[in-house]
User: Fold HAD family phosphatase from Parafannyhessea umbonata.
Amino acid sequence: MDNVLIRRVAPGEAWRGAIVLAGAPMGAGGRGGGGALIKLILSDMDNTLVPFGASAASRRTVDAIHACQEQGIDFGPASGRDRGELSSFFNKDASCYNTGVLVNGQKVYYLGEVVYEKTLPMDELRRAESIAARVEGCAFITYRDDNFGDWVGATREELGPMFERVFLCGGERHELDAMPDYPVVKAGMVVMGDNERAVELSRVLSDACPGLSFPNTVVNWLDASPKGWGKADGVAILQKILGLADEEVCVFGDADNDLDMLRRYPNSCAVANANEAATRAARWHVGASADDGVARAMEQITAAARESCELGREVEPAFMRA
Assistant:
């Protein structure tokens, strides 16, 4: 990681293009070589790469990731989760998550190193925490760097099966106004019951905390993210590190927190189970998460890369020719 600047960015501070990777060309033509159309694949996790409720990526998915990497195509998650949470999804195979855009673009990893990090504004975070903690069946969570979660609100028993999904690295409940004080990059909340309760709480919190947004990314869950910052911003940072043109980046998603990257990149893909907004935003459409839709698409990207090398020209993956 020579000449890579690793830094924490405070709330409201813009990234100024300070990341420079030695030896990586920064021109629009990307790294060149091989003739492959796609050189970087980034996929959302829950309900996209991994079906909701599944504990791990399928063998087919992991094999497809490795096949892409063997063709010189980088892969990484583009997820609301952080790196510590991802290891169990890939059976601790770090090659699947060493590079990625995590915490909805607030953390960018390259080869296992944090190259960008954006913290949340603490005053608004505490305001959101105070509101959410008083909502029945709601747990407001902040995560430490090791993904251990601190929360206020609903008890572990009240959270039921959701507890295991949101506290993959453990957690501790606190009384309101007694949460530990540390810089927070990742936060969110469980809202039990009908998902309309989560949608309504998102509206309330958005009005009370104008510097934050609260997308309902999966059922019974709200992310807490910096207003105006999303996955697309993190993808752009990683893209710059790798020196890639927009069309050399392929992104997969299914939900509202994927919309900015689906709209930003010309080779954007929605899985068949995506919500209406994500389906409209994406240029390409692939199979459902439960049917290994992303893995199948990656297999086609790999096949196109091999054919590109043989023919000496760019070949589009089959799903882009359908």
